[in-house]
Amino acid sequence: MSDAIQTELREQLGTANTRRLRKAGQIPANVYGHGEDNVNISLPAEAIRSVVRAGSKVIELSGAVESNVLISDCQWDALGSSVLHMDLVRISADEVVEVSVSIELRGSAPGTSANGVVRHLLHQTMVACPGLAIPEKLEMNINSLEIDETLTLADIEMPENVSLLSDPNTPVVTCVIVEEMDEEDPASFDAAAEPELIGQSDDDEDDGEEE
Asked: What is the CATH classification number for the domain harbouring 44?
């Protein structure tokens, strides 16, 4: 876990105050849980940016609030580039939490040498683990993945004290063959038939009027 992030009490609420806070390089947040009162705080945006970029789920707070907290929710701007608001839940060192953890593929599938393509089907899964030991990611080894084979959650080697909550039979990655269809030979097509004129019979008709 990274160094503690300094917090300040956020006594003035409302949209206008929140905008001023963000312009000053701070992010508004709420801290709750463990039967304690909810606390409105502000966090330095640069520190939060580093935490989110690293994929951390638990952060240590100091200052106005001194506690380990789990990032429960992040509100992003329209571009998905800046955090606008955070909800933080207090946790203790021995508390077991349920969180979603990303799945990353490692290695090279032998099936790709036989015109196969690896398809990553599941990118996240739910696990239970101590709050201060949440893995940043789970790694799926695909070094044995052949054509038409599928690896499931059961094939992931789980870190110590981390339990899988999702169905272990859920497919995570597969390797399928890519078949390129031969282009049709233009010469195999018959010449397009001339369109039939509506109302015209097969027999030739006289152009002149009857006498």
From this structure: 2.40.240.10
